[in-house]
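Per your request, structure below.
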């Protein structure tokens, strides 16, 4: 089996959830199952300078991970109009002839690349994982209106309100192009039931969309913070600092708690790259207005345990639906309960009152009240921390993907690995509570 994995960026350049999952799966398939392949990440001038002579570049010391420099991408139509770049992809595919082509995003590659693969490597099976709603929503795939209201799904009138400068023909042509290109795909994957349901509600064929949940890399869990006074009032935000992830909501909640005299600490971990000046100005103002909050900047996966050790709760204040947020699994790996919005992929991942707490989406005062309860209610943190589930392992996700690839190729399923017994997350959590 020869595998080609395509993603819209490389996690060493932009450590987003999709990039981390895509490369993690690729490496697990390579290292644990011996799958031969290539991880190809699309970049633009924003991420890496173009070099003369070729659009392909190396990254790091891994010969099976490469970058392809693509420009002229039309984000509204998901269209790559760089014919020269597509021409180099044609030459590459004609030579490489993969058996499986797995797209983890179509950004920068464009819908046209699906057609290129089908024409140049006709025997290859094509898979697309729908990590977000870009195929449905031209508003950056968020299903979020320009005035920050949740959108239940695309419609001509609703989409024109977000794009008043676009005619109905543009919206119709976009939908036809997306659906036509996706007809070339052998299988669509969704990391959550919620995302699959959104696509079905928009008229997509549910029989073509399978749920394949993301996994995360393993590693030791961070110890619980020693709390001599018994208060569990340290809250952590982990993620990119941008409009959609809700850092402004978290800061407003923290400022509200400080005005009410509620002792707490809010640590924001994440970078601010590629954000507009208007947002960054608002972020700095909100940070200055929240005396109990600190921004600790960008972090690497290796930094996560040490930073997680300093917090009791993970706060996820995203203002959009989300899909299958990796940060929830990271929190559960370290036995931290999660406070998140009460809708979408967040609500699917976190059970209110079991392993976390919900608050009304986008409501800073509502979040502040839940944070107050989290800090002050006796025994609440201990009960929820003990119930955090073990996250899905990357090696398990890779094994399921390999079985899926083989099924599409008409090959027998791989022999299952021996079952290994592990200590349950619940028992492990209780032990950590006693030690903490």
């Amino acid at each position: 089996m020869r595998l080609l994995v395509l993603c819209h960026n490389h996690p060493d350049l932009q450590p987003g959830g999709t990039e981390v999952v895509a490369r993690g799966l690729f490496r697990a398939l390579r290292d644990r199952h011996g799958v031969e392949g290539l991880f190809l990440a699309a970049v633009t001038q924003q991420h890496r300078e173009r070099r003369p002579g070729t659009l392909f570049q190396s990254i790091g010391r891994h010969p099976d991970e490469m970058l392809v420099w693509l420009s002229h991408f039309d984000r509204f139509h998901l269209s790559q109009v760089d014919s020269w770049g597509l021409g180099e992809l044609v030459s590459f595919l004609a030579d490489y002839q993969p058996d499986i082509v797995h797209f983890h995003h179509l950004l920068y590659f464009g819908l046209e690349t699906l057609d290129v693969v089908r024409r140049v490597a006709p025997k290859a099976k094509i898979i697309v994982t729908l990590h977000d709603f870009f195929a449905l929503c031209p508003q950056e795939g968020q299903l979020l209106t320009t005035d920050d209201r949740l959108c239940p799904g695309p419609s001509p009138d609703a989409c024109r309100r977000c794009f008043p400068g676009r005619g109905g023909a543009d919206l119709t042509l976009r939908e036809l192009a997306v659906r036509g290109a996706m007809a070339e795909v052998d299988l669509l994957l969704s990391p959550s039931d919620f995302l699959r349901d959104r696509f079905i509600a928009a008229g997509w064929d549910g029989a073509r969309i399978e749920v394949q949940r993301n996994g995360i890399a393993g590693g030791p869990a961070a110890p619980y913070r020693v709390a001599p006074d018994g208060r569990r009032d340290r809250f952590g935000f982990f993620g990119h600092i941008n409009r959609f992830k809700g850092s402004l909501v978290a800061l407003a909640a923290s400022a509200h708690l400080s005005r009410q005299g509620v002792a707490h600490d809010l640590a924001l971990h994440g970078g601010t790259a590629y954000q507009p000046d208007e947002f960054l100005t608002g972020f700095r103002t909100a940070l200055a207005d929240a005396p109990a909050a600190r921004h600790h900047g960008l972090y690497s996966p290796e930094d996560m345990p040490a930073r997680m050790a300093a917090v009791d709760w993970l706060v996820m204040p995203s203002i959009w639906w989300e899909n299958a947020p990796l940060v929830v699994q990271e929190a559960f790996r370290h036995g931290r309960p999660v406070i998140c919005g009460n809708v979408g992929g967040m609500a699917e991942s976190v059970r209110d009152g079991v392993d976390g707490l919900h608050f009304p989406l986008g409501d800073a005062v509502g979040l502040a009240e839940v944070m107050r309860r989290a800090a002050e209610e006796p025994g609440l943190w201990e009960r929820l921390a003990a119930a955090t589930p073990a996250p899905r392992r990357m090696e398990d996700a890779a094994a399921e993907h390999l079985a899926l690839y083989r099924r599409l190729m008409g090959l027998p399923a791989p022999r299952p690995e021996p079952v290994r017994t592990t200590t349950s997350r619940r028992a492990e959590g209780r032990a950590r509570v006693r030690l903490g």
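Residues 17-33 form the longest helix (17 residues).

Regards,
D.
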